[in-house]
Structures are given as structure tokens and as C-alpha cells.
Amino acid sequence: MSGPDKPKVIGEEWSDERVKSFLAIEPYDRSVNVDFEVLLKAYRAMRAEDFERFIGFFVEAGRDLNAPDESGRTLLDQISEHRRGGAYAEALERAGAQRTAAAG
After folding, report:
1. Any residues with CB less than 8 A from the CB of 27 and at least 6 apart, and which?
2. pLDDT over 90 for what percent of the chain?
3. CA–CA gap between residue 43 and residue 29 (Å, rounded)
4. Among 46, 40, 43, which Cα is nearest to 70's?
5. Which domain holds residue 65?
6. Is 10 contained in some domain?
7. How many domains does the chain have?
8. pLDDT tens by residue, 39-54
9. Is residue 24 part of a domain?
């Protein structure tokens, strides 16, 4: 099986098909912004290189890189605070993601 439900394996090469499969994620909670949830799940599951490829597919699909969570913060806002989030944040910024005023 390939996709978001496949266990994470460190160092494994991901096919474009597997990376793109994250575009089909649906949140359990319908009040959650779908684009934010998809980005968050991809961030948590992928290596930085795969996440950057995913962002390209995400933008190509017309999805919102600046989708907020329930607090009004984007994924870029959140991962900019993570010790190991640098490469992921840079990938988002290169694709046009913006920090929000809610980020403080």
C-alpha cells in the first residue's frame, strides 16, 4: 500500500504518487480547514525534500498554502517555532507562504 496510511520509514524514497496521495486527505473534524490539515499531515510524515515536492503539487492543485488552523495560524507560523522545522519553513516560503499577524 502507498500513501498517508503507510507507516513512516526514515530515509525511504517516496514516489510522486505517494507524495501526491496526501492531497486526498480529509480531516475527521469537518470544522478544520482541509488545506491546513493536509499540509500538517504532510509535514509530519515527510522528509523535507519530499515535503518540498509535495508543496509543488499542492500549489499546482490550487490549494491554499496560507490556510489557517482554528487559532488563525498557518503551518508556516507553527513550524517556524520548531527546532527542526527550518527546511520545511524555507520550502513553504519559497512557494509563497506567508506568516500571519497571529503568529506574534
Report:
1. 34, 37
2. 69
3. 19
4. 40
5. 17-103
6. no
7. 1
8. 999 999 999 999 999 9
9. yes
